[in-house]
Design a protein that fits this description.
Length: 236
């Protein structure tokens, strides 16, 4: 499968196949390169990539008002009624907020609805683990296996440990190896080579632990979230 590298203005990242390029949200102006190209090109110049490009619609401009339009007559009564309505609305809102603060119970859902909490709760889907097209030997055994971590969050991932199960023909696990990745910036990826195996036809990947100090994240696959805990992966 053909793969491409991307350039973010400072360095090149990749390689990515077409499905992975979709996740990078490239546009027609993104610089790309593959082994069959002499120089970097814009993604919009490559027919194969046009179908996955992120299209940004043009801005909508409001047509200017007719300068000869007659000004509307202002009604004193209308604005007086609007003022009364706003005063009543503010008074009612203040009363409701005061009652909620007075009657607040310990069983209510915590008020921490921050973006960080939402990111922590979705961390296993935002941090992706994939493999390259590794080699499977004729009589079993896996070689040339690379594991890639893609960080789709706004925060640096300090460390992630991945468990690699080498699966036999009967579906059992021949052996398990572990890889640890460090310092993966936001919206970037990092690859490491996994050990070869003299048995096995495929691999299964599991995110074991993920930590990020910027996100106050301490994810551990071995820990089952407690019932009622709305932020189970926040560091204690």
């Amino acid at each position: 499968m053909k793969k491409y590298y991307l350039h973010n203005g400072q360095e090149s990242i990749g390689p990515f196949d077409k499905e992975q390029l979709k996740e990078q949200k490239i546009t027609k102006d993104t610089s790309v390169w593959s082994e069959d190209m002499n120089n970097w090109k814009k993604a919009g110049e490559i027919d194969e990539l046009k179908i996955i490009l992120l299209t940004i619609p043009p801005p909508i401009y409001n047509s200017p008002k007719n300068e000869f339009e007659k000004p509307q007559k202002r009604s004193f009564l209308k604005y007086f009624l609007i003022g009364i309505f706003l005063i009543a609305f503010v008074a009612i809102g203040s009363t409701i907020i005061s009652e909620n603060n007075t009657n607040n119970q310990d069983t209510s859902i915590p008020a921490d609805d921050s973006i960080q909490r939402q990111t922590r709760n979705k961390i296993t889907s935002l941090v992706q683990v994939t493999t390259n097209e590794y080699s499977v030997n004729t009589f079993g055994g896996i070689s040339n296996l690379d594991i890639m971590i893609t960080n789709n969050t706004d925060y640096t991932i300090d460390q992630i440990t991945v468990a690699i199960d080498y699966i036999k023909e009967n579906g059992g696990i021949y052996t398990t190896e572990y890889l640890t990745f460090n310092n993966i910036p936001a919206y970037q990826n990092k690859s490491l080579s996994a050990p070869n195996s003299n048995r096995g036809l495929s691999v299964n990947l599991t995110k074991q632990t993920i930590t990020a100090s910027e996100l106050n994240l301490c994810y551990d696959n071995k820990n089952t979230p407690e019932v009622g805990n709305h932020d189970p992966y926040k560091c204690n």
